[in-house]
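User: Some background: our group keeps a shared notebook of sequences we're curious about, and every so often someone picks one and asks for a predicted structure to add to the entry. Today it's my turn. The entry only has the sequence so far, pasted here. Could you supply the structure so I can complete it?
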Amino acid sequence: MNAISNIWNHPKTSAAGLLIAVVTIAGVLSQQGISLGKAGSGSVVSLVTAVATALLGLLAKDPDGSQPSSGQTARLGAWMLIALLLPLPWIEGCTAAGAAQDIVNWTPSLQSAVACVDSTAALLAPADAPAFATATASFDAASNLLVSQAKAYLANPSATTLAQLQGQVVTLQQQVNAALLQAAGIKNSASQQHALAAIQAVGTIVTAMLSIVQSVSSKTAVAQMAAHSTIKLATVVPFLNIDQAAKMIAAHYNEPVVQAQVQVAQVEQDEMNAGF
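Assistant: Of course. Here's the predicted structure to add to the notebook entry:
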């Protein structure tokens, strides 16, 4: 009876606990490669996780109109943070097959983002377009090779194809970081804004791919990858727009933007901790 009375007397706490349990179980299912079927372009598990997280957000905002105590507000905020940190959809697939499929799923977006970069020069001031074109000229070849290697890894997730993928994702990441630094030096504010936005779109996808590759790589391999990352993420972070990145992640994984914002921040920190 005590359990029933507690639920009755503290409905919000009970609901939050239930939602956290849902998110936790969904995270475990995702890590085991269990999707429970498709929901649009995502899975039933990812949809349930997103709904549970969104409901936790509503609880944290106290939608019943009452004024929660400071302690209750803090607890709800902590619950929301826990729920946001649990699901990291681009590193859910701890199996080679799951990671390979996730990487390949990103390839159409990568190709589209690179095509957008190619057309962005026309939006820049005449004095800025040549330097931008030079800074991003390598994107086409590098992204095409990365796409090919991702598909090769999906078809044959072996040590050889993984090593090729590891090297190429770092190569493109470095090209993106170098281009971001070049774009940040553009004096015309409108040109700079266009240039940074276009390059970051490519960079967001490459960072997601890098995280996926890391999830199936050994610590030694990750250290080797990081050693080849001479332009560190910390150097270009000041020029990145986390909201832009979060919207791309949220759209790709069919999840709330607020959830994606925390995930993007967490992955950036993880990348920097790993030496990238």
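Suggested note for the entry: The beta strands are 38-39, 42-43. Residues 189-215 form the longest helix (27 residues).
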